[in-house]
Structure formats: C-alpha cells, structure tokens
Amino acid sequence: MARNPASILDENALTKGELRKLNALRKSVGEDIGDMAFVEWLRKKPLALAESEDKNAVLIADTLIPLIEQNKLRIPRGGYIIRRGRGRVIVERPDSD
Predict the structure, then answer these.
(1) What is the pTM of this model?
(2) Total structural domains within the chain
(3) How far apart are CA 62 and CA 58, in angstroms?
(4) If we measure between CA atoms, which residue out of 4, 9, 7 comes closest to residue 23?
(5) How far is CA 7 from the centre of its chain?
C-alpha cells in the first residue's frame, strides 16, 4: 500500500500558487487522489532558478560605479531617477512631495 502523500506534504512551506493548485486538485478529484497528483506534480516541477539579473540595472551600475569611485558623481540622499531622452540618458533628483 502506498504511503499517505498528506504526511509528506508540508502545506506551510508551499507558495500561494501551489496551495491554490493543491486545493483545486483536492476539490476536483478528491483529497487522496488530489494529494497524490500534487506530490507527483511537485516532484516533476523544475527547481526554482536564481533570478536572472536585470541587464539594464547591471549596465547602469557598471557605468556609474567608476564615476562614483573617482568622485566625479555624487548620488544624493533620496536616490535618483533615470529616464530616456532623445539619444541620451537623463539623471534627475526625484521631486519631493
């Protein structure tokens, strides 16, 4: 006889989406079969990959860090806003509300 999948399952460790999927399976095919199907789906699911870096953020950091180290650029308290202009990048202080 197969082990009870509910004993393997730690519902507190599941994400919100995974809990929704588990509850939907339980409602559609019953609790026992739903638990077994969910455990099988969870085993086949690929491991979460590390978040890929934001290429734009890396480019901005690579450009600004050398300027900061040479004391040619100072980033004010409160940060900055970067936006595109016609063929250039515009760096501004955020408006204080």
Answers:
(1) 0.45
(2) 2
(3) 6
(4) 9
(5) 29
Return the closest-CA partner of residue 75 out of 61, 58, 59. 61
Burial 64-97 (b: 16+ CB within 10 A, else e): eeeeeeeeeeeeeeeeeeeeeeeeeeeeeeeeee
- Residue 73: give the domain boundaries: 55-92
What DSSP character marks residue 81? E
DSSP-derived secondary structure for 7-72: HH--GGGS-HHHHHHHHHHHHHH-HHHHHHHHHHHHHHSPPPPPPPP-HHHHHHHHHHHHHHHTTS
Residue 78 domain-assigned?
yes
- Note the pLDDT tens digit of each residue in 30-64: 999 999 999 999 889 877 666 678 888 888 888 88
As beta bridge partners, residue 84 has: 89
pLDDT for 1-27, tens place per residue? 455 555 677 888 888 999 999 999 999
Same domain, 40 and 59: no
